[in-house]
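Quick log. Single chain, no ligands specified.
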Amino acid sequence: MNKSLFLSSRVAAIALTLFLASCGPTETPKTTPSEPPPRPAGSYHVYVTNERSGDLSIIDSVTNDVVATVPLGKRPRGIHASPDKQTIYVALSGSPIAGPGVDEKTLPPPDKSADGIGVFDIKTRKLLKTLSGGSDPEEFDLSKDGKLIFTSNEDTGEASVIDIAMGKVVETLKVGEEPEGVTTSPDGRFVYMTSEQDGEIFVIDTEAHKVITSFKVGNRPRSVGFFPDGKKAYVTRENDGAISILDTVKHAKAGEIKIGDPSPAGNIKPMKVILSSDATTAYVSTGRGKKIFMIDTATDKVTNSIEVGQRPWGMGLSPDGKLLYTANGPSNDVSVVDLSTNMVIKRINVGESPWGVLIVEP
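-> predicted structure:
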């Protein structure tokens, strides 16, 4: 190589090195954070009210684990979603916890400031406000258009009609003693409210805001499940170990299904009833009986039972109907039942005394 050419190349290389050094360290190109992966098709969340710890457990169906716990207030029990699935409503009560037959004079005074219907935003996972809900609201249901809430006020033997937009009770109706279950008919015309003490169902006209009739069904009715056509319903009878079959056109009892022995020997106490999406199967929780019973709705016969946990009460079905979730109060957990095998596949620890179960798809 020509000597002068070699020197020129050497000088050029040194100059390039000095220039690059003066530019400082090379910066790593910035990247925008990646979007979270989309949720699997068919996934959902399970919302569980915990009566003693006063909070809401949120379970993700992808893992069947609790992903959040949100404070709500005193004694959250009944839980339902708005028609658009953006809002959850929860019944809150400042009345002390007491079992059947307990003398209320021996209990601490109720905190009436804690009574109401909590409004929970699904997207932000925050309790936004509390609506007036009458005294000691326990259960409730919404009108078909989602504008009204009908609550059972257990300690006063009343039903409250709440206007959600106004945030207040617009009507108070006298019903039977210890009202409990509240269910709106599929066509939205009626609300059925059970009276535990009187053994009756009170029928409320949702348009007129009036009780139009009542009828006897048996001892300590708890929960009503309407069939999709609105012509038939089941109601659980805790102290009879049975289900009453209802003719909801005539507003009358039409028959019954024996579930099991309600005495201490059997402890089968029907509590909650829900129907599969196709209404071919009804599921009944039995409290101290520890079991879920299945009923063939075509024959009104019990077809199976599964032991799921301690005192199951609230229940929810996955959107595809493959899994059943039960709230087990004394053990502070939720059982996940695989309905293809009729086996409990997981127990999920939640808050204290889980009560209500609600399943919402995102």
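The first strand starts at residue 45 and ends at 50.
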